């Protein structure tokens, strides 16, 4: 599956649903972004069950600000509508493959339980 361009109009619907969504925040002027792009594209072809989205931070400045993007490329992973990973920096193919496997292996019931506990603790504070 080819990567899909995400905009402020499509972002929430794309990352908010069931399944896994990887999001690459990038810009055309960014050298590391350009070097990461082929690796990201290959991963999207090798994992057709995952949505691989791209956000052009120049065109989508409000979206980049909303997600507090301070360094690009920044990669985010959403699973079943929950942000499970966010880290700046270009990854090599083996690192990206490891991240994909790690996201696949997550116990989402455990993730939801941990989130509920954090929210409960924050509400009590």
From TrEMBL:
Keyword match Transcription regulation: no
UniProt gene name: trxA
GO CC annotations on file: cytosol
High-level lineage: Bacteria, Bacillati, Actinomycetota, Actinomycetes, Actinomycetales
InterPro entries named among the record's database cross-references: Thioredoxin, Thioredoxin-like_sf, Thioredoxin_CS, Thioredoxin_domain
UniProt-recorded Gene Ontology molecular function terms: protein-disulfide reductase activity
Residues in Thioredoxin domain copies: 1-105
Similarity-based family: Belongs to the thioredoxin family.
Protein name as catalogued: Thioredoxin
Pfam families in the cross-refs: Thioredoxin (PF00085)
């Amino acid at each position: 599956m080819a990567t899909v361009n995400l905009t402020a109009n499509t972002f929430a619907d794309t990352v908010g649903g069931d399944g896994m969504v990887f999001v690459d925040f990038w810009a055309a002027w960014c050298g590391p972004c350009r070097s990461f792009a082929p690796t990201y594209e290959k991963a999207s072809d090798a994992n057709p069950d995952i949505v691989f989205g791209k956000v052009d931070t120049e065109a989508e400045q409000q979206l980049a600000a909303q997600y507090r993007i301070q360094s690009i490329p920044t990669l985010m992973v959403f699973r079943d509508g929950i942000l499970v990973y966010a880290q700046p920096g270009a990854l090599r193919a083996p690192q990206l493959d490891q991240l994909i496997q790690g996201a696949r292996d997550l116990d989402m019931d455990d993730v939801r339980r941990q989130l509920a506990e954090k929210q409960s603790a924050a509400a009590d504070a």
